[in-house]
Amino acid sequence: MTHRLSFFFRPVFFLLLALGAASAARAQFEISGITFTRLYQAGAPSQQNPPTTTPQYAGAFVSAGGSAARDVSATITVRYPSGGAIALKASSFGSMFASGVPRYLTGEIITPPATQADKASIADATYWRQAPVAIGESFAEPFTLNTVTVDVGGSGYTTVPTVGFTGGGGTGAAATATVALGRVVSVTFSNRGSGYTSVPGVTFSGGGGTGATATTVAAPSTVTPLPLTLDAVTVLEGGAGYTSVPTVVFSGGGGTGAAATAILAQGRVVSVTFSSLGTGYTSLPGVTFSGGGGTGATATVSAPIRPYYYSPHANRTFASQAGRVDITWVTRVPVAITGDAVLKYRTRLESFAVSSATDKPARTIYWTENGFNGPIVSIPSGKIQTVNPIYTTNFPQLVTEEFKQPGAPASTD
Fold first, then answer.
1. What is the DSSP letter of 287?
2. Least confident of 4-18, 40-54, 299-313, 334-348
3. Which residues 6+ apart lie within 8 Å of 361 measured at CB?
4. Considering only CA atoms, which of 312, 301, 314, 333 is closest in space to residue 229?
5. ∠ Cα 27 29 31 (to 5°)
């Protein structure tokens, strides 16, 4: 979310030594993304120096004040605040704070963060990948030790035993055991070491007890910042002859637990509503209908539509939908940060608002099917190979029912 703060200060000076009238001074502060603060001080906004404006915001706060003579004395230096050769005759000041200001207009290019994963160092053009993290996209992680699980606590420990690690191909791992009632109850890493290609064994020595055993657990080999979630089931064909509600069956996709209920009208499946989205899906499952006495119903499952569009040809991300936008960026290559020297992919979640006003002139969409006779757009041969529509929640790829023009005959398609 972007916040903008405008501040003006207009002092009126009386120069005792005939230095002339002082010109007004103005300043505008802009806070963008709560990352940097910029100060503009070059006179009032003009055609050559336009202010940054957006048509929508959540709210605004305005304050103002001023000053005048502080004494009735005829002596200038007593009547007005003064310092040497200059006396402040009058002044006015004020401020305005607007919250929820959209960071982008619809259609504008969304740029990666200006700072690195540590949110402090400046990121150059190669630090973040231009393509945001896609739903279900996974990234390989270096092999690292994660935790130590105590399998058997043993008995008779009067002091804390020394934790040792053997094998695994690496060096430097160190950990501390915690003892309670003569048993080892937990082990905490103080150093995960480096160079390990497999989990090392764990040993306990000293402490006056025996029998404690534990297992090293490695961190996941891949990380998926945005796990795939199911969003909706769209009916493609309603079928015919259904006398009772058919069972909705999901298959494939690598997950489990998805469940939905079909809704019938005049012997046709008209919609499907999720009762459970399931878990663990890595790809969209297929959907079929079983029972109900009818045939021919088909449907497809879709994932949530992202409120932005990444163009692989332009290698840019565009704001495609107004409202709140959550976007996750990923580093182009594995990097280390302060406090974590392990090279791995770093991600950053950004949230901001996108205005419904457009960056480019609005265009009209014409339908050419099912009785509509809008003008056909000719695509020059050899210049444009593929047209990729950008779908949003307001302009989905598929709908449950096609639009029926009032008064038009029913479609036979």
1. E
2. 4-18
3. none
4. 301
5. 175
Which of helix, strand or coil describes residue 79? helix
- Can you tell me the distance from the alpha carbon of 175 to that of 161, in angstroms, rounded to the nearest whole number? 11
Task: Tell me the C-alpha distance between 352 and 105, whole Å.
Answer: 11
Separation of alpha carbons 168 and 24, rounded Å: 72
Alpha-helical (H) ranges within 119-193 are none
Residues 6+ apart with CB under 8 A from 238: 268, 269, 270, 296, 297
Residue 68 amino acid letter: A
Predicted local confidence at residue 147, as pLDDT: 93
Residue 313 region, left (φ>0) first, then alpha (ψ -120 to 50), else beta?
A: alpha
Q: Is 371 exposed, middle or buried (0-12, 13-18, 19+ CB in 10 A)?
A: exposed
CA angle 258, 262, 267 (to 5 degrees): 155
Q: How far apart are CA 164 and CA 114, in angstroms?
A: 43
- d(CA 38, CA 114) in angstroms, rounded, equals 14
Please check whether residue 165 is in contact with residue 199, taking contact to mean a CB–CB distance below 8 angstroms.
no
Which of 92-96, 158-162, 333-337 holds the top average pLDDT?
158-162
Nearest of 366, 246, 232, 245 to residue 305 by alpha carbon? 232
Please say if the pLDDT value at position 5 is more than 70.
Answer: no
**Overall size of the chain counted in residues:** 413
DSSP string over 344-411: E--EEEEEEEEEEEESS--------STT--PPPPPPPTTT---------SSS-S--SS----TTPPPP
Burial class (CB in 10 A: 0-12, 13-18, 19+), 310: middle
Q: Are 61 and 96 in contact (CB under 8 A)?
A: yes
DSSP string for 220-241: PSEE-SS-----EEEEEEEEE-
Closest residue by Cα to residue 246 from 264, 265, 273, 266 = 264
Q: What residue type is assigned to position 353 of the chain? A: A
